[in-house]
């Protein structure tokens, strides 16, 4: 089975085409466009320019899917549509202009699917998972391999930076404000306050921080983890009065210059809040979780029901013939 998944996010729009052979999942195609839809939101409303941007990308992805071996597709939206006031209008325009109907994921469902992706590929026990998107951040606390708490916070790398950073590079005052806003959101969580050594992160912000870490520390190219100490060092560079210090960071991830500072501040505050010591960046994300949970499992369930119904019909026919 080959299937396509499109993730309509606040910062990027991504297309993944997966192949499932009954045992393993293989990623055949992975495309990304930094659409920055959160930047096209005015007073909680996605503008016509933003809608057109989304439709242009979706139509390009549609052509890729049509020219691929994919037998079906799913399109889901996260905070990009979940957090806007005109989501019904936007959804309808997307349907008309692309022929595709987006499923809007609830924040809790987005968090759960991220956990599904991580649990499938990592041997986890206790810890925290995080998905820092452009318009929201999803958190899961898990113990004994099971979810204990999960939530979605309407603060993401792009909307946080758009709101509090006037120019391209954030000032110390602006960074302080972003830290304060993020900290307050975390303090509102009605969760038991515990320390967890491990954090598993998915999403573009997390991967960008990993790239910066590899640039400044002796981290092997194939390594997927870094420490809280590494993170603190990067934060110090971003807060430096020496422009060469923070420019060196942005040179590593120039495509995220309008969201990286907001994203790493969110990550750093979460690391401090839970006492995290090691951050592991997952190769797999919500699209993997969606494919496994909503496509593979659903098909398996449909086949199981079909077998059960066939068995019931057989038993009923057999009983009837004996009468």
Question: How are the SSEs placed, and which strands pair?
Answer:
Elements: E1 2-8, E2 13-20, E3 25-33, E4 41-42, E5 45-46, H1 48-66, E6 73-77, H2 79-82, H3 87-98, E7 103-104, H4 107-121, E8 127-132, E9 137-143, E10 146-153, H5 157-164, H6 172-187, E11 198-202, H7 204-216, E12 225-227, H8 228-238, H9 243-252, H10 260-274, E13 278-281, H11 286-322
Parallel strand pairs: 1-6, 6-7, 8-11, 11-13
Antiparallel strand pairs: 1-2, 2-3, 4-5, 8-9, 9-10, 12-13
Helix pairs in contact: 1-3, 4-11, 5-10, 6-10, 7-10, 8-10
Strand content range = 15-25%
Low-pLDDT runs = none
CATH topology of the largest domain: Nucleotidyltransferase, domain 5
- Which CATH top level class of the largest domain fits? Alpha Beta
Share of helix among residues? 40-55%
The structure class reads alpha/beta
Helix count equals 11
Radius of gyration: 22 Å
Number of strands: 13
CATH architecture grouping of the largest domain: 2-Layer Sandwich
Shape annotation: globular
Distance between the termini: 43 Å
The name of the CATH superfamily of the largest domain reads Exopolyphosphatase. Domain 2
Quaternary structure state of the chains depicted: single chain
Number of domains: 2
Write down the secondary-structure element order: EEEEEHEHHEHEEEHHEHEHHHEH
């Amino acid at each position: 089975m080959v299937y396509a998944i499109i993730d309509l996010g606040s910062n990027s729009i991504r297309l993944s085409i997966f192949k499932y052979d009954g045992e393993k999942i293989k990623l055949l195609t992975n495309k990304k466009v930094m659409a920055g839809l959160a930047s096209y939101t005015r007073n909680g409303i996605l503008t016509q320019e933003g809608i057109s941007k989304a439709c242009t990308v979706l139509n390009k992805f549609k052509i890729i899917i049509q020219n691929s071996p994919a037998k079906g597709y799913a399109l889901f939206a996260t905070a990009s549509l979940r957090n806007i006031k005109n989501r019904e209008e936007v959804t309808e325009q997307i349907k008309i202009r692309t022929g595709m109907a987006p499923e809007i994921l609830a924040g809790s469902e987005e968090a759960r699917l991220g956990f599904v992706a991580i649990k499938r590929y990592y041997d986890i026990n206790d810890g925290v998972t995080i998905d820092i998107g452009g318009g929201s951040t999803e958190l899961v606390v898990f113990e004994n391999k099971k979810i204990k708490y999960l939530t979605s916070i309407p603060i993401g790398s792009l909307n946080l930076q758009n709101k509090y950073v006037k120019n391209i590079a954030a000032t110390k005052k602006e960074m302080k404000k972003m830290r304060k806003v993020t900290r307050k959101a975390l303090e509102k969580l009605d969760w038991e306050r515990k320390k967890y050594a491990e954090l598993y992160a998915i999403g573009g912000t997390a991967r960008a921080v990993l790239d910066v870490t590899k640039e400044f520390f002796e981290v092997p190219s194939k390594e997927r983890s870094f420490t809280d100490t590494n993170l603190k060092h990067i934060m110090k560079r971003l807060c430096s009065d020496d422009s060469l210090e923070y420019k060196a960071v942005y040179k590593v991830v120039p495509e995220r210059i309008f969201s990286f500072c907001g994203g790493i501040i969110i990550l750093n505050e979460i690391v401090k809040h839970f006492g995290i010591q090691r951050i592991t960046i997952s190769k797999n994300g919500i699209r993997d979780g969606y494919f496994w949970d909503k496509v593979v499992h659903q098909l398996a369930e449909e086949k199981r029901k079909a077998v059960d119904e066939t068995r019931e019909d057989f038993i009923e026919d057999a009983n009837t013939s004996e009468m």
